[in-house]
Amino acid sequence: MKHVPSSIRTFLVPVTPCDDEGLVLSRSAADRGAHQTSQHSASATTTNHPPPAPRRRFVGHIELNRPRALNALDVYMVETILKTLHDWRIRADVTGVVVRASAESTTTSRPVFCSGGDVKQVVTRGLRGDVEWGLRYFTSEYHMNMTMARLASKTDGSGGLDVVSVNDGITFGGGVGISIHNRYQVCTENTVFSMPECPIGLFPDVGGSYFLSRRGALGLYLALTGARLHGRDVQRAGFATHFIRSSRLPGLIAAMARHGSVELALREASAEKTEGADDDKEDDKEEGNAAGGFPFDIDLGEVFRYDVGVEEIVEGCRRKARGSTAAAFWKEADELLGRSSPTSLRITLELMKRGRAMPLEECLRNENRVIQRLVRDRSSDFYVGVTARLIDRTGSPRWGPVQNTGRFLEPLEPNLELQLGCTYSGRF
Asked: CA of 224: how far to CAs of 212, 272, 306, 339, 387, in Å?
């Protein structure tokens, strides 16, 4: 029987510290393990027993391993991540977690972290009558997003867990979702960030109405156009905590195994400098490629405003394209908007407007309301867009009439609403 590699790998790597680090616990592990040791502390100080051996510690690894599908997430992968995080968060010996792509995904000419959710599978099954598969996928994904956010903010009841995502390559849609809610995100010169849902009849979900709306006009621009950010621009825009060259990532992983601390490993890898004249030249070359080039000096707020409608935003782009010094930028923005489902643009704008004043779990609940209606309606623009752009690849979706945005956000039957528990305010 032919061996089929797993689409996701989860494993623990033991921490092997230097001699002077052997008794140091990472901050998060100490927080989660404190209640296990406090009751013994008084008696320990009154005895002459030798000190206990250092507690064995581990760093958790979650590797996406679906390179032929650009590491697109399916139900199995999402539920594996969710279960793994729940298992590791209650273990005092797991001091941190790294989420990254497998070596098979990053050693190609087009490095990939995660290209998003496998919406082709959702649509294909839905057209056959199995819409529950897609709904299970999205529901599990939103629970995973919320779990990551709570671990990052230590509001999960376990003391939290330091999780870092290494976004070395394409990071689209659902790939942003398994990154942005963690405590740390690493971008490299290979990172390409995008929320490209509107052109397939969807909308930026996975909490996009939360984290994008907190980026003001830039977030609204990225949500509506699906435009891409490259390299260090991802960090500049606030969607990554660290920039580390891809050639230094092995050092980051090694530092995590040595320190047992995500924070210390990131600090070390970020500060590391390559020695030697030839290496310095290579540094300069890769820094140039990694610069990104997004025109942050453009006043996006003149057009991408939260107090207008989609029509005004489109007209604003066209006006700027006719008489602006940045005419090419605005022309491209207009073209990107023109590729998208008119209904998706309006849903996205409404979600972003509401999301600015909502905590993450409320944003996810709103997104779930829209998803439930799009997936259950097999004539929706979601099915049209995914079929045309990702399955048949005709590239020309025939969008339906513009729908009333309000109906997508109306409350669902109680058993269909997303149940996420306690409130989370987040770091944005």
From this structure: 10, 38, 12, 10, 20
